[in-house]
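Re: How this chain folds, sequence and tokenised backbone to follow

Filed under: protein folding, tokenised backbone structure, sequence and structure records.

Contents: The amino acid chain and a row of whole-number tokens, matched residue for residue.

Body of memo: The sequence and its backbone structure tokens, given next.
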Amino acid sequence: MKSKHKTGTTRQVVGKRRERSHVQQRGNERRNKLLVSAEKLLESIPVEQLSFRQISEHAEVPEGSAYHFFANKYDLLTALASDMAERFSDIYKAPIPVGAIHSWHELADLFVDRAAQMYSTSPAATQIWLGGRMPPQVKLADRIGDRAVSDVIHGIFDSYFILPELPRRRDVFFFYMELADVILSLSVIEHGEITPSMLEEAKRAGRGYLATYLPSVMTRRKERS
């Protein structure tokens, strides 16, 4: 009898674990559907006109259930901003063609070009990161994502060139990115897109800032070796 009792208890525990796992998986799927739907809707709807109900309906998730995952629309967009930052960091990490970089100025310009490429392929990212209608909580998620990307950029700079000793090295590459983003944001706000002339201004702003910390010519690592 004791053995049967233990067996029955074990089955109950296993059954409960499976049930919890199923519920958790279903919850993750619904949460992901909400994020995907928000990103899709932002391709054609201005963020200030997009409602939480529209997102839940597009995701085919009951609005009441959607509130179990996000407190409101901007809470959802904050999560979306973090999610996109991780996905788009691959754009900055993409291989650079051999012989394409001869100076740090060219490398700085390349990353601004890649940022513009990212925005051109994602209207949602453009609205969330460059639009002027996002509350502080969403902007904060953007800044956190930029911190991670700036670390990637710093690493690539360091792999190409012998960098000088820099105070607050992480801040230097973070501020370089933020300055370029400000110009790109102004372009979107004023023109509805990133224009070629504003893209060049963003590159100039980035190079100009870095030039206050980096010498005009830096030794290439392959030359040092």
Notes: The chain has two domains: 2-66, 73-224.
